[in-house]
Amino acid sequence: MPKPVEALPRSKVIDVVVIGAGQSGLAAGYYLKHAGADFLIVDRERRVGQMWRNRYDSLILITPRELNGLPGMPMPGDPAGRPAASEFADYLETYAKTFDLPVKYGVRVDRVTQTADGFYTLVIPNNPIIRARNVILAFGTYPGAALPPMRKDFSPKVAQFHTYNYANPKNVPSGPVLVAGDGAAGREIAAELAATHEVFIASGRPRVVLPERFLGKTMWWWLEKFGIYKVRKFKPNRPRIDFIPTSVPEKEALVDLGVKWKPRLISASGNIVTFSDGSQATIRSVVWALGHLLDTRWIDIPAAKDPAGHFLMDQGVSPVPGLFFVGRPHQASASSGLIMGVGRDAEHVVGKIPLHIASGRETAPAVLAS
Ligand SMILES: Cc1cc2nc3c(=O)[nH]c(=O)nc-3n(C[C@H](O)[C@H](O)[C@H](O)COP(=O)(O)OP(=O)(O)OC[C@H]3O[C@@H](n4cnc5c(N)ncnc54)[C@H](O)[C@@H]3O)c2cc1C
After folding, report:
1. Which residues contact 81 (CB under 8 A, 6 or more apart)?
2. Looking at ligand 1, which residue's alpha carbon is closest to its atom 51?
3. pLDDT tops 70 at residue 360
4. Of the residues 129, 137, 155, 355, which has the fewest C-beta atoms closer than 10 A?
5. Percent of residues, the chain, with pLDDT higher than 90
């Protein structure tokens, strides 16, 4: 059951506040708990795992259960099988309960700043400010949908969705649909829409789809065994190639389902879309599956970012003392944005936090007037 909004602590500066109670925040919480830290995990949702529940109804994880366990608790069930998103969300909820992690729900942090005394202030709507010595940003590997300016060129009669608010084919008006983007989500959504709709998919760069299993093991198992996902090639904020073995439908499978495979989408006008080969389609709906965007503006700490607004860090440790990250893609290795990587990263990051475990606490008030 969703939890009600809980009262926030008012009496002291918290040693560590973790923003986000997804896999990244919970993994950080596990190590903070074991370190005996004074900490709090806050999340704007009313339930742990909600990000997974909010994703499209048919989502099945591409990673097998054997690699979806967080520190201290393997994921139950067939190790080589892939769980539904709701099953993984339930696992996260059980995880938070099992380790009695202090999660405060319904707490949306609108702004994080640092005061002259070095403490962090977290601004929460209709609530007093929280003060903390350290903050771990675990607010989502892929927090926002990327939407192109072209979306404004469509007629208002064209229904527009993105992978964050698309739930299932029933919500999509009848008539031709364009799925813009052929990543894992775009392909899966195109495949399920094909049963009820005429579907076009606009593709992007060529992708290598590896087989799901090899010599009786999942491809993920092999990649993990050979350390591919532990490789550190840390160059902050540079795009990298991800090797993703996946069960998502290949081009041929989609074409067999009746999906019309198209090259890159280049323009839209009213309800007509044009592709890079000059072909056109008349559509009723579009599902944007173009990837994700990170908005860093609400972390109001200029020294934490480069001029383009990207976070600066070395393996999850910001140059700004007291600021840390878990769950940023590639923050330490190729698995940092995947479930299998957050435990390693969280352990490393928590080890870098100057915890005030046995020492006296600062006397500054925890809560400032909002
Ligand atoms: C469609 C999709 C499928 C994926 N499938 C896989 C897969 O199969 N295997 C895999 O390993 N990875 C997968 N990933 C990648 C990654 O594991 C997920 O994105 C995962 O949800 C990231 O976990 P997280 O804890 O870092 O962030 P999230 O799960 O996004 O959790 C972040 C939490 O922070 C909270 N939050 C955000 N902003 C605020 C704020 N301002 N104030 C308070 N709380 C806030 C949110 O409510 C949320 O609960 C997938 C990603 C997507 C998008």
Report:
1. 64, 65
2. 142
3. no
4. 155
5. 68
Q: Which residues pair with 202 in a beta bridge?
A: 180, 262
Neighbours of 270 (CB within 10 A): 13
Atom of ligand 1 nearest to the CA of 138: 26
- Give me the torsion for CA of 206, 212, 218, 221, rounded to 10°: 10
Domain ranges of the chain: 14-143+294-350, 149-207+242-288
Please write the tens of the pLDDT for every residue from 191-246.
999 999 999 999 987 766 677 777 888 777 887 777 777 766 545 455 445 555 56
Task: Note the pTM of the prediction, 2 decimals.
Answer: 0.88
Distance CA 253, CA 186 (A): 14
Q: Are 350 and 343 in contact (CB under 8 A)?
A: no
Supply the pLDDT for residue 217: 80
The partner residues of 16 in beta bridges, in order of sequence, read 39, 134
Protein residue closest via CA to atom 30 of ligand 1: 140
Q: What confidence score (pLDDT) does residue 32 get? A: 98
**20 Cα to the center of ligand 1, angstroms:** 9
- Distance from residue 50's CA to the centre of ligand 1 (Å): 9
Distance, CA 330 to ligand 1 centroid (Å)? 14
Closest CA to 30 of 70, 89, 80: 70
Tell me the backbone φ, ψ of residue 285, rounded to 5 degrees. -145, 160
Query: What is the C-alpha separation between 278 and 263, in angstroms, rounded?
Result: 9
Ligand 1, atom nearest to 67 Cα: 11
Nearest CA to ligand 1 atom 1: 185
DSSP string, 45-91: SSSTTHHHHHS-TT-B-SS-GGG-PBTTBPPPS-TTS--BHHHHHHH
CATH class of domain segment(s) 14-143+294-350: alpha beta
As assigned by CATH, the class of the 149-207+242-288 domain is: alpha beta
How far away, in angstroms, is 175 Cα from ligand 1 center? 32
CA distance 154 to 252: 29
What single-letter DSSP state applies at residue 124?
Answer: -
Mark out the alpha helices in 134-218 (DSSP H runs).
184-193
Best of 5, 40, 141 to mutate for ligand 1, by most ligand atoms within 8 A of CB?
A: 141
